[in-house]
Amino acid sequence: MLNRQLSGVRKKTLLEALGPVPDVDPDRYGEGGPVGALETRVAHLLGTEAALFVPTGTMAQQIALKCWADRTHNPIVAMHPQAHPLHHEDDALTVLSGLRPIKLRTSDIGSCPEPYGTLLLEVPDREAGFVLPSWDQLVSWVDLARERDAVVHLDGARLWESTYGLGKPLPEIAGLFDSVYVSFYKSLEGISGAALAGTQDFVDQARVWRHRYGGMLFQQWPAALSALHGLDTVLPRLGTYVEHAKVVAAAMDLPEPHTHQFALHLPGDPARLKELSGEFLGGFWQDGPLAKTEVTVAGPALEWTADEVREAWAEFRGLI
């Protein structure tokens, strides 16, 4: 059973990843073509005035937070200690943008002694195991920040699948925030790329910073086509993935996940666990007090019944 894939997505050929290629003109420096179509589509899905394609999520986050720092005349950006910019972006906020990130737990949003100008909220919290707040919690955090005259930016790299756990549609979630970042290559299985969404004037300002950060490539239509393909084919399936993730987690005797992904912590050497888990759980294992992997319930997992997951899980646990 362990030589059969449970976690992750199916590998795609280049043509499969690209999706259908229409007979239209390409974009030119990110304007028009499939890129323009993608931006219009994202703005419609999120219910915002406009959206901007950005080559990477790291760049998108830097641009958004730099824009808000300029507008608020405040370089202090508050975020959870586990937030993505603090762990996976090589201090770009400080080194490139001259901003001052501060670590702020959600319980301290309203009482922080630092007068932060921007609050970044990551939904779901990946480092915590793809955990979602309740809708009321999320609204209260935004309200507390607004009471301090701060703007609120959403790190929504995994927003697409969060609608089910939050029980709200995309426009209502995005409408809480002053700006939103979404990813195309994570849950939507695109080649690469991200988008920023918000008001037209925010997006106009972000477009200038995209150029300054080196993100105005001559043509970006392959990534845009792949993202559109993900919106057409993967986005409608995310609800099924989320529901089946509950089946998979229950078969492994784990807490019910909030999205179609969840963290798994086990004692042991990550390299050894990677070897033992085979195709079953994939090759992503991190070291720490306990070894950690992330289980993604997507297309391959739908072919597993609860009994099959239970049997493979027991086999794996028997080896460690």
UniProtKB/TrEMBL annotation:
Task: Cite the GO molecular-function annotations of the record.
Answer: L-allo-threonine aldolase activity
Q: Which InterPro entries match?
A: ArAA_b-elim_lyase/Thr_aldolase, PyrdxlP-dep_Trfase, PyrdxlP-dep_Trfase_major
Which cofactor names does the annotation list? pyridoxal 5'-phosphate
Which biological process, per GO, is one annotated for this protein? Answer: glycine biosynthetic process
**Any one cellular component term from GO for this entry?**
cytosol
Which key words tag this protein in UniProt? Pyridoxal phosphate
Among Gene3D superfamilies, the record links this protein to:
Type I PLP-dependent aspartate aminotransferase-like (Major domain) (3.40.640.10)
Note one Pfam family from the annotation: Beta_elim_lyase
**Domain Aromatic amino acid beta-eliminating lyase/threonine aldolase intervals:** 25-254
Give the family, as the similarity comment puts it: Belongs to the threonine aldolase family.
Q: Which PANTHER family match?
A: L-THREONINE ALDOLASE (PTHR48097:SF9), L-THREONINE ALDOLASE-RELATED (PTHR48097)
- This protein is called what? L-threonine aldolase
